[in-house]
Design goal:
Layout lengths: L5 E6 L7 H14 L3 E5 L2 H7 L2 E4 L26 H12 L5 E6 L1 H13 L3 E6 L15 H22 L2 E6 L6 H9 L4 E3 L7 H13 L4 E6 L7 H8 L8 E5 L11 H19 L5 E6 L2 E6 L14 H7 L4
Parallel strand pairs: 1-2, 1-4, 4-5, 5-10, 6-8, 6-9, 7-8
Antiparallel strand pairs: 2-3, 10-11
């Protein structure tokens, strides 16, 4: 059964809660199968700089509940250069590492695919991003924790909004994806949502806010940082032209959304993904991604992650508006 003897794991791109739980699962699965595990510091940067450390059972004790990643993470422009990928391959070769687990997003997987094709290293990708926008999987590590963090923040903001009869524009992360914005909007009872995937009718939204202000009602509007208008501040700048600024406030949640102890779902899927990745490598498989489809953990081709992601729950928009009629 065993096709590899040494497996390395790295975290790449933005950190997300549950990455540590996944590292733990990878390392302890290696211990169980009596093969060597290595951790790579700071993602692909560490692979290029030869910053690899042996990891055993005790090295991953008491990390499952911690946010972030004990290995560190980074975005690595150098990995786009074949010369640096060659250095990375040599660093693996001298330790006889023949299996690589990469926890990250679609950009990390793209680099992993190219690297695996160039060199004889088996690669398994594990989706880890709070944006939950990787094609081929219904779930990525960190999404549930980030959503719960946002919902708690919105609940607190709503107390002030209600007390002062104000409209709050709450900006959430998501880059070019509105998955976080859409899901947190419907689950926090927001009255409106701005997201990159839909064209905004600013006049319609202005009229809705104007009705709320004149009715002395409070409102929460979730704004994705990558929405077509340009974020919460730009939405505010547009609305203040109509004399609404006294009742408008902007709250940008920022990097608080990335941190925190992972929730049950993130711990569960991180653990299942990590064990599945090691099992796949031991079976001699490569260029695959762990994924959740239909509620179960499967393996799919890593190339699937490179296809454009389509939000599955756009119908939530109708629900949000149905439940927020003034």
């Amino acid at each position: 059964m065993v096709k590899v003897q040494n497996i390395a794991v790295l975290t790449s791109g933005g950190d997300s809660p549950g990455m540590n739980a996944c590292i733990r699962a990878v390392v302890r699965s290696c211990v169980y199968h009596k093969i060597n595990a290595f951790g790579i510091i700071d993602g692909f940067n560490g692979l290029i700089r030869d910053e690899l450390i042996p990891m055993g059972y005790d090295d991953v004790s008491n990390i499952l509940q911690r946010g972030g990643t004990i290995l560190g993470t980074a975005r690595c422009k150098e990995f786009h250069d074949p010369a640096y990928r060659k250095i990375a391959a040599e660093n693996l070769k001298k330790r006889n590492i023949d299996g690589l687990v990469i926890i990250g997003g679609d950009g990390s997987f793209k680099g992993a695919t190219v690297f695996s094709q160039e060199y004889d290293v088996a690669v398994i990708g594990i989706p880890g991003t709070i944006d939950n926008d990787i094609n081929g999987t219904d779930y990525a590590i960190g999404f549930d924790t980030a959503m719960n963090t946002i919902i708690r923040a919105v609940d607190n903001i709503r107390d002030t909004a209600s007390s002062h009869h104000r409209v709050f524009l709450v900006e959430v992360m998501g880059n070019n994806s509105g998955v976080l914005a859409l899901n947190t909007a419907v689950s926090s009872g927001a009255e409106e949502v701005f997201m990159p995937e839909k064209k905004e009718d600013l006049e319609e939204i202005r009229e809705k806010i104007d009705r709320a202000v004149h009715a002395n009602k409070s409102s929460i509007i979730i704004v994705s940082e990558g929405d077509q208008v340009g974020g919460a501040k730009e939405v505010f700048n547009y609305l203040q032209q109509f004399g609404l600024s006294d009742k408008l406030r902007v709250s940008i949640l920022g990097h608080i959304q990335r941190g925190g102890s992972p929730t049950y779902l993130d711990r569960l899927y991180a653990t299942l993904f990590g064990e599945e990745a090691v099992s796949a490598l031991l079976q001699g498989r490569s260029n695959l991604m762990t994924a959740v489809q239909g509620g179960g953990v499967i393996l799919c081709n890593l190339s699937v992650s490179q296809q454009p992601y389509q939000i599955k729950n756009m119908h939530y928009l109708k629900l949000i508006r149905k439940l927020s009629v003034y």
